[in-house]
Amino acid sequence: xxxxxxxxxxxxxxxxxxxxxxxxxxxxxxxxxxxxxxxxxxxxxxxxxxxxxxxxxxxxxxxxxxxxxxxxxxxxxxxxxxxxxxxxxxx
Length: 91
Ligand SMILES: [Zn+2]
Known about the structure:
Elements: E1 12-13, E2 20-21, E3 26-31, E4 37-39, E5 48-53, H1 56-70, H2 76-90
Antiparallel strand pairs: 1-2, 3-4, 3-5
Helix pairs in contact: 1-2
């Protein structure tokens, strides 16, 4: 295990607009070890993660790049399901 420097807050980058910020400012989209894609804030959900601003336009952009970011081939309905999940949380 690598020990983290005390007080160090890792920066995340939005895959939509490229803005950097704190983890709490973004949606976290995770590809789990079961190859499922979920939106999860919890660190307990582990896997390759992508971050997106809580912003409609960023989400739209991000969905076009999510496949590359998570290194996963999305089915069309899988992608629209994910889009819906995020949109619900935007409200
Ligand atoms: Zn963004």
